[in-house]
Amino acid sequence: MPSEHQRVSGDELSSLPETPTTPDALSPPADVPSADRAARRAVVLFPLLVVAAGVIGLLWPAHFTGWAPTVPWMLGVVMFLMGLTLTPPDFTAIARRPWPVGLGLLAHYVIMPGLGWLVATLLDLPPQLAAGVILVGCAPSGTASNVITYLARGDVALSVSVATVSTVVAPLVTPPLTLLLAGKFLSVDAGSMVVDILKTVLVPVLAGLAVRLAVGRYVDRVLWLLPWLSAAAVAVIVLVVISGSAARIKDAAALVFLAVVLHNGLGLLLGYAAGKLARLSRPASRAMAFEVGMQNSGLAASLATAHFSPAAALPAAVFSVWHNVSGAAVAAWMSRASRRS
C-alpha cells in the first residue's frame, strides 16, 4: 500500500530505462503483470482506508481521546516494517550511483522545505498550520514514491536509494531545517526533535534491517502482508490526528487542502525539472519527481503532535492521502506517455 511505508527492493533491478522493475513486496519478480495489478490496487485502496479513518476520527472524536501517545508507536511500526524490506543491494546501489542519489537528496531537502515555507507565507497560514506545512516539507521521502515510480515506468533503483538515504539522514537534517523555517511561526526544540526521530525512525528501520538479515527467508514469505500492516498503522495515525483537531477542521479544511495541493504539486513539478536540468534520463527524472514531491507524512504528523499541537498535524494527515492520489494520477499519465513513445 503506497504511503510513507511501502518499499520496493532494489534487488536485480532492470537496466532497461522504460521497463519498470517488480516490487518484491507486491509479487515475485518474474510476475510483472501481477505486480502491476497489485500495486495499482494498493494505490486505490490505501487512500480509501486513510479517508475512512479520518472520517471516523472526525465524526466520533470523543472515542479517541487520549490516543495521542500511540502516534509515535504507530510510526515506529511503520518504519520497522520498512526496515524489513531493505536488503544489502539497496545500499550497494547507493555507492554505485553517488551523483544522482546525491542530487535527489539535495533536491528533496531544498525544494520541499522551501516550498513549505513559501506556501505557508503566501497563504498567510495561522502559526500552527504554517509550522505543520513546513514540517511536512522537512520530512524525508515517503517510500510510497518507490511504488509510484514503478507504476510511472521510472528508475526504481534510484527511487529506493534516495528514499533510503533521506530517511537515514533525517535526524541530522529535519530538525535544523524545521527550526530555520518554522521558528518564526512557533518555538521549535530541535534537540528534542532529533531524539524523537532517532527513536521513531532510525532505530526501528535498523531493527527491521537486522531482522531481515538474520531471518530473511522467513520475512520473504510475508513481504506481501507488510504494506497492509503499515497501512493500518498510518490509518491509526490519521485517525488520532483528525480526532484531536475535529473542532478546528471545519474552519481550516479548505485552507489546509489548498496548501497541501500546492506543496505536493509544485514538489512533483520541480523534482522532475531538477532531474531534467541535471540531464538525467527520463526514468531517473520521473524518480526525482516522486522522491521530491512525496513525503513521510507519518513522521511529520508524529512530530507535529509531539512538539506543536494536533492542529499542526493536520497538513500531514491531509498530505498522507493526497500525495498518493496525485502521485498515482501523475504515474498513470507518465506510463501512458511511455507506451505512446
Automatic annotation (TrEMBL):
InterPro entries per the UniProt record, alphabetical: BilAc:Na_symport/Acr3 (IPR002657), Bilac:Na_transpt (IPR004710), Na+/solute_symporter_sf (IPR038770)
Membrane topology: Multi-pass membrane protein
Compartment(s): Membrane
GO cellular component annotations of the record: membrane
Transmembrane segments: 42-60, 66-87, 99-123, 129-149, 156-177, 197-215, 222-246, 252-275
Keywords: Membrane, Transmembrane, Transmembrane helix
Top-level taxon in the UniProt lineage: Bacteria
Annotated region described as Disordered, given as residue ranges: 1-33
Biased segments, Basic and acidic residues type: 1-10
PANTHER family, per the entry: P3 PROTEIN-RELATED, SODIUM-BILE ACID COTRANSPORTER
Official protein name in the record: BASS family bile acid:Na+ symporter
Species the sequence originates in: Streptomyces murinus
